[in-house]
């Protein structure tokens, strides 16, 4: 069995749901989740700069993260287990600013999400999981930032019932003290006046 790469443009402009190349035979399976030429053909021209993996127990929530400065587009896939993955459009000039979309990513469905620059990203772990990231920018610790997973303005519907309720979440200290969407809006205003247009150029910090 051979399944070719498949790219689905999402309604948050610049984001994609991608099914990797997959083939199976009597030995097992073969998955290719990135190929520069195929991605280029579909208009995704990010340079791959960094790859990392996170390992999480059921109930872990990592959200909603982004880098302030040195924007980092990333290709995210759950290589083992099952997560509920969420992207949030944080481009102030976008028609879908502040909107979120959620996706089941699992080793079974093999789906991956292309998270564009200026998006927030996070996930809830529904089964013990390993998640892979292929990033178009390196990690920039000074710019490491995020918005609270339960921000009332963004209002993400996390499937907490699948982990036994919200009281079961496992969350880092950092993620319990992230900014609100309102704070983010205020921050953007400051950037606008100090550094020019947000959303159209990469910052060099
Ligand atoms: C993300 C990252 C973290 N680190 C370090 C910082 C810290 O000491 C340790 C763990 O970092 P964190 O707690 O921020 O890891 P984590 O909460 O898994 O952060 C990740 O969450 C998801 C949702 C994303 O989208 C990623 O881009 C990233 O922000 O690893 C790096 O050295 N390089 C990296 O690229």
UniProtKB/TrEMBL annotation:
It comes from the Bacteria. The active site is at residues 65, 133. Its EC number is 5.1.3.13. The keyword Isomerase applies. One of its GO terms (molecular function) is dTDP-4-dehydrorhamnose 3,5-epimerase activity. Pathway: Carbohydrate biosynthesis; dTDP-L-rhamnose biosynthesis. GO terms for cellular component: cytosol. It is an enzyme of class 5 (isomerase). Keywords: Isomerase. CDD domains: cupin_RmlC (cd00438). The keyword Isomerase applies. The record marks 139 as: Participates in a stacking interaction with the thymidine ring of dTDP-4-oxo-6-deoxyglucose. It catalyses: dTDP-4-dehydro-6-deoxy-alpha-D-glucose = dTDP-4-dehydro-beta-L-rhamnose. Pfam families: dTDP_sugar_isom. Homodimer. Belongs to the dTDP-4-dehydrorhamnose 3,5-epimerase family. Catalyzes the epimerization of the C3' and C5'positions of dTDP-6-deoxy-D-xylo-4-hexulose, forming dTDP-6-deoxy-L-lyxo-4-hexulose. This is dTDP-4-dehydrorhamnose 3,5-epimerase. It comes from Schaedlerella arabinosiphila. The gene is rfbC.
């Amino acid at each position: 069995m051979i399944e070719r790469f498949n790219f689905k443009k999402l309604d948050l402009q610049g984001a994609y749901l991608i099914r990797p190349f997959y083939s199976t035979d009597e030995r097992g399976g073969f998955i290719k989740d990135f190929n520069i030429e195929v991605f280029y053909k579909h208009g995704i021209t990010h340079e791959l700069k960094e790859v990392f993996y996170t390992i999480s127990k059921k109930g872990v929530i990592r959200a909603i993260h982004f880098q302030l400065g040195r924007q980092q587009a990333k290709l995210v896939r759950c290589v083992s287990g099952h997560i509920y993955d969420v992207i949030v459009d944080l481009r102030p000039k976008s028609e879908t600013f502040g909107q979120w979309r959620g996706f089941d990513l699992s080793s079974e469905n093999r789906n991956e999400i292309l998270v564009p620059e200026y998006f927030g990203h996070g996930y809830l772990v529904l089964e013990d999981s390993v998640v892979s990231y292929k990033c178009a920018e390196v990690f920039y610790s000074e710019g490491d930032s995020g918005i609270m997973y339960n921000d009332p303005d963004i209002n993400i519907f996390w499937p907490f019932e699948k982990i036994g309720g919200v009281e079961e979440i496992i969350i880092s200290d950092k993620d319990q003290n992230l900014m609100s969407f309102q704070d983010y809006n205020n921050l953007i205003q400051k950037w606008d006046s100090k550094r020019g247009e947000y959303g159209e150029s990469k910052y060099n910090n």
